[in-house]
Amino acid sequence: MDKWLKSPWFIRIISLLLAIGLYVSVSLSDNEASALLPKSSSETATMSNIPLQVRMDEEKYVVRGVPQTVNVSIEGSGGIVTTTERVRAFNVFVDLEKLEPGKHDVRVQHQGFSNNLSVNIEPQTIEVVIEERATKEFNAEVDILNQDQLNEGMILGDPSVDPETVEVTGGKSEVDKIAMVKAIVDLNKIDGEKISVDNAPVKVYDEQGNELNVFVDPSTVQVDIPVEGGQKEVPLSVQTKGELPNGLSLQSISTKPETVTVFGQESLLKDVKEISNLTVDLSSFEKDGSVEIDVPLPSGLTRVEPSTVQAQIDVEETVEKILEDIPVQVNGLEEGRDITFIEPENQAITVTVMGTEKQLQEITAEDFTATIDVQGYYEGEFDAEIQINGPEGFDYTANFNYARVRIE
């Protein structure tokens, strides 16, 4: 052996064989090399729930029909199969970049696998629908589940939602179907006097109540719902402003219904006797009629039902009733002094009252008082203003506004 190693020709032959082997290993493809080299045992592996990527212009289009995951089977030498299954440095995708809106059958593609592996994807093709992207803003209403969990006597108030609106994005045909956007609240948590849900999921439905496959931003909202402890029925009292046209008087004003129900905590309900700050403008009426008016909510309470009522206005032609000999009383006269009425000479006035015939039937002179105040007046003649007090809701005039008196 030592003699061979010292032989130049032996060294040249060995070098030539090594050069040929290196050339072959560089020049042949993986598959050709595998054909020349001894084959190792083949293995198979199946990987489930591999995410399926979508390549498309997401700012312009949306797609329906793409599954979230697929199953991938690989076959090849044991070492490559094991490494691929462990590292998973590959992508599985559908390429929709060059497709127009509509329905398409597309092949599921892959990249990043070794050429020494046989790859099978299930499903191999999928049917997709590409649509133009549409975005629309909606108010989020509250859908309350399991209300039977409320304690007896407890009533839910009006919920508040933050934010009040959400943006819904999807295919134009899907967005056009939207009939309801609901924030779902399950009554599994009642805290004191309100229900508070930090992350109520937002669902989108069509007119038939079917949930639509769209994107919602934000996908959850904050919902607060007051829980009311009681209710009480109270009457209404209507005030008026403005004036009826000349020749008309207000006969009556009433509401339908005459009472409303207020809701809230018992400690606040007990102080509410009536709701009186409802107002009707008479200047808009020239005959009998009705108008819808809002019912104000008393401070601290949570709800009033109904929140609006009909105010019925009845008007009649104005008539006059003359009431004579209403005595003028004197206040503030100093002790020891006498007063004489120069005008009106009989120390009495006449009052003309305006109203409807029905209203004036019960009005008499005894319903009115007339007074003058002469405190601080001494000897001499003076004009003192006549103060007249009469029933509320009537217009009236007197034949004297001032009394001419002499004090001695």
From TrEMBL:
Q: Cross-referenced InterPro entries, in alphabetical order?
A: c-di-AMP_regulator, YbbR
Look up the domain of life of the source: Bacteria
Q: Which residues form a coiled coil?
A: none
| Name of the protein in its database record | CdaA regulatory protein CdaR
Species, as recorded: Salinibacillus aidingensis
